[in-house]
Amino acid sequence: MAHTTKFNTDLTGKTALVTGGTKGIGKAIADELALAGARVIVSARNKPTGDSEHHFIAADLTKAEDATLLAREINEKFGGIDILINNVGGLTTPGGGFSTLTDKHWEDELQLNLIAAIRLDRELLPQMMTRKDTVIIHISSIAGRQALWNLNLAYAVSKAALNSYSKALSTELAAKGVRVLTVSPGATKTPPMEKFITDYASSQNIPEEEALAQLLKQTGGIPMGRMAEPEEVASLVRYLVSPAAGYLTGSIYAIDGGSLPVVS
């Protein structure tokens, strides 16, 4: 008999953790999961300004002890989670190619964009496997598949490593009730992206509009003609963590307006 499912994206009764969940893509994801009915926990280094409907836990996930304390508080206060969104990350290293990058640059980028996710997965997975039907989403970047040597070399390498780790983890956990997926945004309207454009414009002594055009040209442009909104990334994440996507695991989903110039 054919197996049929309804397009169900309701998350009522689920508990989700979104790291880096106080601004940009992370905040949009947290808000979207809450709209879907989930109880949402967010973590970041600093408490967000203003009111938030989400439970906040301060954590610097580049520090192993903070990951341990975050997981402990979640398990004690909430009894664990069903959904983990590893969103924390960012481009922190200078451009200019290999000669500008020190060991410290490489280590910092790997800690932020790869090791932080690995250590938090390790802390939370034992509990997640007991619940079954749980989901981990790693927020990567199209840079992991299209590095720009003069702009984001270390960042791109760290995200490529995250992609590989996520795929391997999905294979290990597929029979244990945990789905693992990767979402790779392209250029998205977030505060870090705006700062990157501003800094690049300043370094080249050109207007920000010209800086953005130059940056997009290096990647081949965006066929849809605009950057993504954080809410569009969040919408994809909501679908992927929902029952409607119950047979999906191990895949990388680019959300880039068609900018990656590859078939797969």
UniProtKB/TrEMBL annotation:
Pfam families reported for this sequence: adh_short_C2 (PF13561)
Alphabetical keyword list: Oxidoreductase
Recorded superkingdom: Bacteria
InterPro entries: NAD(P)-bd_dom_sf (IPR036291), Sc_DH/Rdtase_CS (IPR020904), SDR_fam (IPR002347)
Keyword Oxidoreductase: yes
Family matches, as PROSITE patterns: ADH_SHORT
UniProt keyword DNA-binding, yes or no: no
Classification via NCBIfam families: PRK06523.1
PANTHER family: OXIDOREDUCTASE, SHORT-CHAIN DEHYDROGENASE/REDUCTASE FAMILY (AFU_ORTHOLOGUE AFUA_5G02870) (PTHR43639), SHORT-CHAIN DEHYDROGENASE_REDUCTASE FAMILY PROTEIN (PTHR43639:SF1)
Family membership noted in the UniProt record: Belongs to the short-chain dehydrogenases/reductases (SDR) family.
Protein name: SDR family oxidoreductase
